[in-house]
Amino acid sequence: MSGRRLLEIASNSVASALAAQASGADRIELFDNLAQGGTTPSRGSVAVARDRLRIPLFVLIRPRPGDFHYDTQEAEIMLRDIESCRQLGCDGVVIGALTVDGDVDVALCRELVAAAGPLGTTFHRAFDAARDLPAALEAIIGLGCQRVLSSGGAASAMAGRHVLRQLVTQAGGRIGLMAGAGLDAQNIATIAGHSGCNELHASAKALRRSTMRHHNPALIGLESDWIQSDAEQVSALRRALDQLV
CATH code at 59? Predict the structure, then answer.
């Protein structure tokens, strides 16, 4: 497989997204709440990101942490968040939902895709939580999504790279498979080569130290350091992928 691989950076803030853009990212997935797998960012964050990014911006549509089975109120929240993304001029949204039995919730996801309209759609790692990955892939293809973000149902894309290869073969060009989970500059080329995925997804996260000189020691965790995408790590990911061309 040849050609330039697309690098998407999972960005937990506007600062992360801008660092990724400056360092060679091709697309941003913007979200909040990295520690719990990501939730929908604020409208303000999306608006500022849209104003300042020159590369495509996709926004995670996930109303809460936890599982991927949603009730009617959560569905309404997701539909309204998608509407907001359209109003703000985003390029795409990242969606996903499952039934209680671990199948793709086709009815709800069809509503989400319809709400997205002209926006691109990525099906997120709810896919990895499905009980039957090949069947889930066919359901997502039927929804008309552009791609699926997956680790091959494993804890990391490295561990699931052979399953990803099988899914790429099954897809047969009908949908894109984007490898994600645990990618870094040391393994991204291996994962790309073994999985056959042309799109790779990484957070490139690093600890940012607080610049506050004063801290209240009673507020444990409230004034802590935080995680942000790191420009040097994004550059390293880009270089590693470009060596495959």
Answer: 3.20.20.380
